[in-house]
Amino acid sequence: MNWNELSQASLNGIMDWASSQPWSQEMANCNQDAEWHSEGDVWTHTKMVCSQLPLLDEWSSLTSHEQLVLIFTALLHDSGKPLTSQIDPETNRIRSPKHAVKGEHLARSILRDVGCDLQTREEISRLVRFHGRPAFLLEKSDPNHEVVFLSWLVNNKLLYLFALADTRGRATKEMGRPEENLHLWKLASEENGCFEEPYDFANDQARFEFYRQREPSLHYVPHEEYSCTVILLSGLPGSGKDTWLSNARNEIPVVSLDEIRSELQIDPTDNQGEVVQEARERCRELLRKKVSFAFNATNLMRQTRQRWVDLFADYGARIEVIYVEPPFELILQQNKQREQSVPEKVIHELARKCEPPTWTESHSLVLADS
């Protein structure tokens, strides 16, 4: 089944499809800690969580899109456990460290393969990544910051509803954290105005600084005075970043890693130190002159983007991130048409590692799916 078919299917229909997938079979073969999950393997727990969704009081009031997002969040929330589960040598208990992080990447790959649209895919993948956070709200030094922080990454209402289903979808409810903790998540989100919508920061700069500071303030109102605007392009090779620039921002200068490699005659598989250093110097020159420009590179990992964002922010620039990702088949086709195409195997590997940008990284964000 493809995404169009799945989005029209019933919960039972989606479950039938999922039960035949290799990732669900791996979950069925993955045992869990008996004291937390006496129901047994991961897939058994997953099916129990899915069965709890229609029993939620709020279920009938949700849109079909919201219901679909919750169903796939439930299906994939523990998909990373088969990749991370291990027996603790000291306690002899099963642990699955960072399974949510692995699950996010796996969910993104699974949803890409069935043709899920970019916006919905990222909505589900991030819910998978942060699905466990509401239960630990009381362990945070500032619960208000926690709900505000996540409100620009996920919908707190859907996160709360999923957490309820996750807590109820197990045989050992007494070992789970009480539902009262989850209700506190809802209450804190509502009090901060970010239960159904992202938190309303004073302006874009306030949001940008909130996510960059170790001890951020929710009430700081900075001036929005920018020296220039830097557009940071992000996307797989062959995704169409150059085309997007030529159509939308053809009037500004561009610092392109591909062009610098060509000028320096450095192959993409060689050491990129000289290429990056030259790019940084060209960016600094434009930043010193307060000239708006675009920085064009794959920028697939958050850590990589952060180094460039830090540079631009140091010069007081407004930063716009543009992530380009058309359907994967089109990316492969467009890559073959490039003068220096990237091996298809490499593109598949880059796609598995890719971390699409979020609103926490810049002043503005565009997710372009064509």
TrEMBL record:
Residues 64-146 form the HD domain. The keyword Nucleotide-binding applies. Pfam families: AAA_33, HD. InterPro entries: HD/PDEase_dom (IPR003607), HD_domain (IPR006674), P-loop_NTPase (IPR027417), tRNA_CCA-adding_enzyme (IPR050124). Keywords: Nucleotide-binding. GO terms for molecular function: nucleotide binding. This is HD domain-containing protein.
